[in-house]
Design brief:
With 325 residues, the chain is mainly β. The chain is built from two helices and 22 strands. It has a single domain, classed as Ribonuclease Inhibitor (Leucine-rich repeat, LRR (right-handed beta-alpha superhelix), Alpha-Beta Horseshoe), CATH 3.80.10.10. The strands form four sheets. It has an eleven-stranded mixed β-sheet, with no helix packed on it. The chain has a six-stranded parallel β-sheet with strand order 7-9-11-13-15-17, with no helix packed on it. The longest helix is centred in the N-terminal third of the chain and has 16 residues. It is found in: Cell envelope.
Length: 325
């Protein structure tokens, strides 16, 4: 019995004294330490201690089967550019650098080594320059969020070649040019499309009319022409925001999906009579102000529950909640 107890105690001591980095591969650990060094060893990453296990005690690091699969660093003081060593974390599925206002530069080309990446979120930093074409080499990405940055130049048409992409959020940047024609030929899923608050312009490719977007927000740009291709009676679209552009189309000819709950067409050049079809929608948000609409607002449904401001500043709209006709 004494021998058995001694062996148990000895085994326990051996187990406890094993290096704490046992569950973290040396390759991933070295890559993370190089990333920390490139950021000049910031206090935000003080838990990244080479004497501890990167899979169990390092801030923002998550592992699966001893490999780093998620790196999330947000809301802190982090100075510099995204290090090239990010590409050495080849098993990453989630890369999230967000709310880091001192993160500068562009997205390094080495990111294309992350062939398993599912979520790429670089939101509200100070990244700048063009959105690189090589982003499209990330064939496993389903969620792309580059919003609230300083990116300039055109939208890369190559984004349409990402076969698993379900959401494009590149809003609140300084992007210019038009929506690429290639967006009419997505090779995979039809993504949610969030391009609002940029400096984009031009007509929207008519080929986008064949897609059943879940959500579209193009507000706060300089788009012109017909924006009605996002609508259709047989679609399942939930949210459309085309506000603060220069779209021109006849609203009376638009067929609306019954699924729409949020519709904002304000501050455009949309004309025509007010369609009765809108009274049949279960709208939670609605605004058609500052357009060129005319005629009587149909009664029924939820239209009369909205403030007069949602209908104001049109050519000759009348009826509740505006003045009677």
């Amino acid at each position: 019995m004494k021998l058995f107890l001694s062996l148990c105690i000895f085994s326990s001591v051996i187990f406890i004294s094993l290096p704490s980095s046992y569950s973290c591969t040396s390759a991933d650990k070295n890559a993370l330490l190089q990333i920390k060094k490139a950021f000049n060893n910031p206090p935000l990453l003080s838990s990244w201690n080479p004497r501890t296990d990167c899979c169990t005690s390092w801030t923002g690091v998550e592992c699966t089967n001893s490999r780093v699969t998620s790196l999330t660093i947000s809301s802190g003081e982090l100075f510099g550019q995204i290090p090239n060593q990010i590409g050495d974390l080849v098993n990453l599925r989630t890369l999230d650098f967000s709310y880091l206002t001192h993160l500068t530069g562009n997205i390094p080309h080495t990111i294309t080594k992350l062939k398993n990446l599912d979520i790429l979120r670089l939101k509200q930093t100070n990244l700048s320059g063009p959105i690189p074409d090589y982003i499209s080499e990330l064939k496993s990405v389903t969620f792309l969020d580059l919003s609230f940055n300083q990116f300039t130049g055109p939208i890369p048409g190559s984004l349409s070649q990402m076969p698993k992409l379900e959401a494009i959020q590149i809003n609140d940047n300084k992007l210019t040019g038009s929506v690429p024609n290639s967006f009419g030929s997505f090779v995979g899923n039809v993504p949610n499309l969030y391009l609002f608050n940029n400096k984009l312009s031009g007509n929207i490719p008519e080929s986008l009319s064949k897609y059943d977007f879940n959500g579209v927000d193009l507000s706060g740009n300089g788009f012109t022409g017909d924006g009605s291709m996002f609508f259709g009676r047989n679609k399942t679209t939930i949210r459309v925001d085309l506000s603060r552009n220069m779209f021109q189309f006849d609203l009376s000819k638009v067929k609306f999906a019954r699924s729409i709950v949020s519709l904002d067409l304000s501050q455009n050049r949309i004309f025509g009579k007010f369609p009765r079809e809108l009274s049949k929608l279960r709208l939670e948000h609605f605004n058609v102000s500052y357009n060129r609409l005319c005629g009587k607002i149909p009664r029924g449904g939820l239209l009369q529950t909205f403030e007069p401001s949602a209908f104001s500043h049109n050519l000759c709209l009348c009826g509740t909640p505006l003045k009677s006709c």
